[in-house]
Design brief:
Structural class: mainly beta
Shape: globular
Strand order of the largest sheet: 4-8-7-6
Radius of gyration: 17 Å
Helix content: under 10%
Largest sheet: 4 strands, antiparallel
Number of helices: 1
């Protein structure tokens, strides 16, 4: 997310947001709710610049079956995953015992000047991109069933939505879940 009013700068930041009981919610730790447990990996922070094709962010969101709390973890390719923190189950009125819909996506908001920011890595995906890492992508979306076992989501149950194809693109990939992005600009 790029949000100067929240973060104080124009960099890309990772973030967490919850919306719970009575429609209340909050970003990161701005209001009481999220319990940060890792001193090294934070729920929110600026994302480092990385060479094209070298950035990979893996996250895991799951409900602890003993406490009912909703944990977020940083998935590491090498070494142990890092538990970042959790949202207590009491914050939520409709997901106290699991969920039946999962949403993944990106949102951009036009500035007062009319400029829309880049989305993803600012590369609009093309059909030729389906097998490479030119665009931002979401892949390997797994869900945890009622037995707490990981399963791949079924493609037939996925919905894809792009509400502005003038400045941004969205393509269903082969082994990827989807590719997305675009440079933004005027009149998006």
């Amino acid at each position: 997310m790029i949000n100067p009013s929240l973060f104080g700068d124009g960099r890309v930041w990772g973030y967490g947001y919850f919306k719970g009981a009575n429609g209340t919610g909050c970003y990161n730790t701005v209001c009481p709710g999220f319990v940060q447990v890792s001193k090294r990996d934070l729920i929110s922070g600026p994302l480092p610049e990385a060479p094209e094709g070298k950035r990979n962010i893996g996250s895991n969101f799951q409900q602890d079956k003993k406490t009912g709390n909703w944990w977020v973890s940083d998935i590491k390719n090498v070494g142990k995953d890092i538990h970042i923190g959790y949202w207590p189950k009491e914050l939520f009125d409709v997901i106290s015992d699991g969920v039946n819909i999962v949403g993944v996506g990106g949102v951009v908001k036009t500035s007062p000047s009319g400029q829309s920011p880049p989305m993803g890595n600012a590369h609009r995906p093309t059909e030729e991109d389906k097998d490479d890492m030119a665009s931002a992508r979401v892949r390997d979306l797994l869900v945890i069933d009622s037995s707490y076992k990981f399963k791949r989501s079924k493609r037939s149950k996925l919905e894809y939505l792009l509400d502005n194809d003038k400045c941004y693109g969205l393509i269903k990939g082969k082994e990827h879940l989807f590719l997305f992005g675009g440079k933004g600009g005027d009149s998006c």
